[in-house]
Design brief:
This protein is 56% helix and 0% strand. It is mainly α and 420 residues long. The longest helix is centred in the middle third of the chain and has 35 residues. It binds heme C (6 copies).
Amino acid sequence: MKLIPTLESRPNYIQSIVALFSFLIALAITSPAWSQANDIPTDPDIISSGENLFRQNCAACHRVDQNLIGPALQNVYDRRDMAWIMAFVKNSQKVIASGDEYAVSLYDEYNKTVMTSFDFTDDEILSIVAYVKDQTDNPPQAAVAADGTGQTQEQGVPAKYLNIIFIGLVTTLVLLLIVLVMIVSVLQKYLGQKADLESDDREIVEQRFDLMALLQNKAFLGMIAFVITAFAFKGIIDQLYNIGVQQGYAPKQPIAFSHKVHAGQFEIDCNYCHTGVTKSKNANIPSPNICMNCHSGITKGTNTGTTEIEKIYSAIDNNKPIEWIRVHNLPDLAYFNHSQHVVVGKVECKTCHGPIEEMDVVEQYSKLTMGWCIECHRTTDVKTRDNAYYDELVKLHDKVNSEPMKVEDIGGLECAKCHY
Ligand code: HEC
Ligand code: HEC
Ligand code: HEC
Ligand code: HEC
Ligand code: HEC
Ligand code: HEC
């Protein structure tokens, strides 16, 4: 095996370069958001007919860049595929009734507001989407002027393109390296054939890569040591961050109470038992009396039922609380309030607690670290609709920023909000 490339092996380089490029192109084409966004027409005629349809039929409830009665439609073609959008516009209730998860949660998020059905052809809907995309890509002048600078329209590079850019950079570097190695080898060959070289020069030309010398080089060893220490240090820091993280914790409870049976199979509302969630800081655990609302009637159904249900009776008879084992537990230094999140923030239980209605034994679904709280506060829009409390704030916010208001913007990252 020749380590130093020669001219004869050049066709292999060309092959690999071609392969690399076709790989990159394939990557770009198969990226779904990329290709779908490209399928949306940009023809001015289609866009203007889309604009008419939008103004007459959708503008009552939708804006392109802000939530109104329905959600802001910008980037909807990235969130959903065209087939879904068409089905939703033609008959949103049908999509919701089919159990489509996204549609159902959107419907709930918008307080079960029914969107009108439209008897449009696919092309008509496509033209509306084309208009929406055109408005997203070229926001109207007024909006740009309103914020004075015109700068805030810049959204930064979306994360999904960062990967592609990164791959592109690495590829360029690899290609450069290959070309350099080729040039060196050609020069070496050429000089090696010249007979009249000084002996000093010949030594340089015939220099070979010397692994041993490299390994004895102090600077090189220092660099390797630095890289290894850096990785080790990062590993230790990561481990430290995980101390006290109890994600997945699922203790066995004194009574085999199953959320899968109660909240899943029998669809009992979370609030029926955890009455505190909407009113206070704590989501309380129900007292045995609440169990008895039902279990005085439906006790002795099954085998496990008898023994397990007896325990509820004995708790009531002995006037002792059931000693449920606490699953979620923030340290005392942190303040968390359920009603703030569930009622005001309209965050669903399952966002933080996962699919409780499928769990026989409750487990801690999220990390409950500070980073977890902060991450959500950075990325979640405040639900300001129908909330007079926020009206003034929203007006102020919209003056300086065209992005929807995030929890971060109302002080969700201030230490004192979460720490006593
Ligand atoms: C009566 C008010 C109303 C009208 C009119 C209306 N919508 Fe909607 N739209 C909504 C609401 C509310 C939602 C949120 C889902 C729900 O509650 O059903 C929504 C959701 C959507 C979604 C999903 C958005 C997302 O974020 O994924 C699309 C797409 C959409 N509408 C398109 C249209 C188009 C196109 C028109 C006009 C042809 C239109 N809507 C007219 C109220 C309306
Ligand atoms: C029939 C009453 C009942 C219903 C309905 C119910 N729960 Fe519970 N929940 C309990 C009881 C009892 C416990 C304590 C025992 C346990 O952890 O399983 C509990 C515990 C929990 C815990 C863990 C508390 C801790 O110790 O940290 C969470 C989270 C929870 N429930 C969320 C939910 C959600 C979300 C729903 C709705 C999807 C729901 N519950 C519906 C009775 C109920
Ligand atoms: C809204 C009515 C309702 C409430 C409130 C309720 N349950 Fe149940 N529970 C049911 C139903 C329905 C079943 C299923 C009965 C069956 O399978 O025969 C059940 C089943 C059970 C079972 C399992 C029985 C078996 O068959 O294995 C246990 C244990 C249980 N419940 C405990 C509790 C506890 C503890 C509470 C209070 C925290 C509670 N339940 C509150 C309706 C309720
Ligand atoms: C899934 C998203 C999410 C997670 C996770 C989350 N929050 Fe929040 N939080 C919100 C939203 C949304 C609001 C805004 C509620 C409103 O409109 O006032 C909020 C508001 C708050 C506020 C009030 C901020 C203010 O300025 O009024 C506090 C305090 C808070 N959260 C603490 C926490 C803590 C502590 C944690 C972690 C244990 C946490 N949150 C995790 C979504 C989240
Ligand atoms: C924004 C995230 C978030 C949402 C949304 C949320 N929870 Fe919690 N939940 C938590 C955190 C964090 C704890 C731990 C609180 C603590 O230890 O002080 C917790 C604890 C609990 C507990 C244990 C008792 C307590 O208050 O410490 C129950 C029960 C519970 N949640 C039920 C629910 C139910 C039911 C809902 C939906 C109505 C819900 N949660 C929505 C984050 C959330
Ligand atoms: C959105 C809520 C939130 C905000 C804002 C927040 N924290 Fe925290 N912080 C928490 C929670 C929750 C914990 C407990 C997490 C855990 O035990 O992993 C915590 C833990 C800590 C701890 C203890 C770490 C440990 O390992 O015990 C320190 C120190 C801390 N926070 C400092 C700060 C400072 C300083 C700020 C302001 C720059 C801040 N926090 C802002 C929620 C928050």
